[in-house]
Design brief:
389 residues, alpha/beta, TIM Barrel, two-stranded antiparallel sheet, 14 helices, binds alpha-D-psicofuranose, binds manganese (II) ion, L-rhamnose isomerase / sugar isomerase, manganese ion binding
């Protein structure tokens, strides 16, 4: 085996991918939510399903929770349940988009009482973090305006900065805030954190424990996402990815399904900037829904897609690439990248799994396990993602 492949195997052995609890509930569009047999009925069962993904892939040891979707009486008990299943609790997502009070905003609202309510919700999330051992508080701000003149854009930013500061002050020394951006939806004139620049400015003002989350579905078509990755890494503020695939809007489809080359280009910058290494501070999370496909296999496929893109990025001959770039060999440099992208990495990933005592095909192994048939038999009344509260 070449040195490059050996190094790739070592790096792949350390990679982890975090799963979203909401991927295991029923989900859909605003037109229809299709129920599926056997879907998890509560947060405990969502963890059980997530643990299946880890069991067959070996690289998905954490689950993000969404509060209050994943509401339970005792979060210590939920974390213990996760530990029994061989997984842990990852990021805690706050929810600022399902409350009538937030029609005109939450952390940016003109009324201090509404802002207080939104800030206090994060105190509840931080409590959940303490109880579960989570270190990442993920804030996606759904605030924005629909019409020019509807509100004062500058005043909203000032109120947001103040609210975020109050939330940031709640963090323990080992905790981080992950601040997500999205260019549209649920508002369509001006979102209050529409882009990475706005998120980064707020993070820089807050302090070292604040970092940006890059959700791959939250950009305008044609945006060069890998360029954003580089900028955030350069600033030391890329805290996490929400991986998913988009064609039109915030589609939340299986990562790497429509554009595996984009995922490869992103992972190329991650590998090239030494951000794959555990401890580099980048949390690779999925943020997806499986509306028409089965949930657990959908998550297994997603994890495998991330692994494939990562493996290809690890196989880039970076010495040859640097030489070609240095000498201005435009086509040569591009060819180095394309050679790696064109490599069939499935045998390498099969070897990785074999070395870890896993089935070489996690997708097929899960299908054979009988788990899906068992949950379809035993669970009645699957929970809709987003309506756990
Ligand atoms: C918003 O579109 C988002 O991507 C945020 O990450 C939320 O937490 C997630 O979806 C689930 O609603
Ligand atoms: Mn997201
Ligand atoms: Mn989204």
């Amino acid at each position: 085996m070449t040195d490059l492949r050996t190094a790739a195997l070592d790096a792949l052995a350390t990679q982890t991918i975090e799963l979203p609890s909401w991927a295991f509930g029923n989900s859909g569009t605003r037109f229809k939510v299709f129920g599926r047999p056997g879907v998890a009925r509560d947060p405990y069962e969502k963890l059980e399903d997530a643990a299946q993904v880890h069991r067959y892939t070996g690289v998905a040891p954490r689950v993000s929770l969404h509060i209050p979707w994943d509401l339970v009486d005792d979060y210590g008990k939920l974390a213990a349940h996760a530990a029994d299943l061989g997984v842990g609790i990852g990021a805690i997502n706050s929810n600022l988009f399902q409350d009538d009070a937030y029609r005109l905003g939450s952390l940016t609202h003109a009324d201090p009482a509404v802002r207080r309510r939104a800030i206090d919700h994060h105190a509840q999330c931080v409590e959940v973090m303490h109880a579960t051992g989570s270190t990442d508080l993920k804030v996606w701000l759904p605030d924005g305006t629909n019409y020019p003149g509807q509100d004062d854009l500058r005043a909203r930013q000032d109120r947001l900065a103040d609210s975020l500061q109050r939330i940031y002050a709640m963090l323990g020394p080992d905790m981080r805030m992950l601040l997500e951006y999205k260019f549209f939806e649920p508002y369509f004139y001006a979102m209050d954190i529409p882009d990475w620049g706005t998120s980064l400015l707020h993070c820089l003002a807050l302090g070292d424990q604040a970092t940006v989350v890059l959700d791959t579905g939250h950009h305008a078509p044609g945006t060069n996402i890998e360029f954003i990755v580089v900028q955030l890494l350069r600033a030391g503020r890329l805290g996490a990815f929400d991986f998913n695939s988009r064609n039109y809007a915030d589609d939340d489809l299986i990562v790497g399904s429509a554009d595996p080359f984009q995922l490869f280009r992103i992972m190329n910058e991650i590998v090239g900037n030494d951000a794959l290494r555990p401890g580099s501070g980048v949390n690779f999370m999925l943020d997806q829904c499986h509306n028409i496909e089965p949930k657990i296999p959908g998550q297994i496929r997603s994890v495998m897609n991330v692994q494939e893109a990562t493996a290809k990025a690890l196989l880039i001959d970076r010495t040859a690439l640097a030489e070609a770039q240095q000498s201005g060999d435009v086509l040569g440099a591009n060819a180095v990248l394309m050679d790696a992208y064109g490599t069939d990495v499935r045998p390498l990933l099969a070897l990785l799994r074999e070395q870890r005592g896993l089935d070489t095909d996690p997708y097929a192994a899960y299908a054979r396990s009988g788990y899906q048939e068992r949950i379809a038999r035993e669970r009645v009344g699957g929970q809709q993602a987003g309506w756990g509260a």
